[in-house]
Amino acid sequence: MKAIEKFLRLEVLASMALVAATIIALIFANSGLADSYQNFLNLSFEIRLGTASLEKPLILWINDGLMAIFFLLVALELKREVIEGELSSISQVVLPLVGAIGGIVLPAIIYMICIGGDASLTPGWAIPIATDIAFALGVLALFGPGVPKALKTFLLTLAVFDDLGAILVIAFVYTGNISWVAKGLALLCFLVLVAFNKLKVTRLAPYCVVGALMWLCVLKSGVHATLAGVLLGFTIPLRLKDSSGHAPLHTLEHGIHPWVAFLILPIFAFGNAGVSFQGISLSALAEPLTLGIILGLTLGKSIGVFGFSYLIIKTGKAKLPEGANLLSFFGVAVISGIGFTMSLFIGSLAFETNWPQMGPQVRLGVLGASLLAACIGSLVLKAGLSRAEKVPV
Question: What is the value of pTM for the model shown?
Answer without folding.
Answer: 0.80
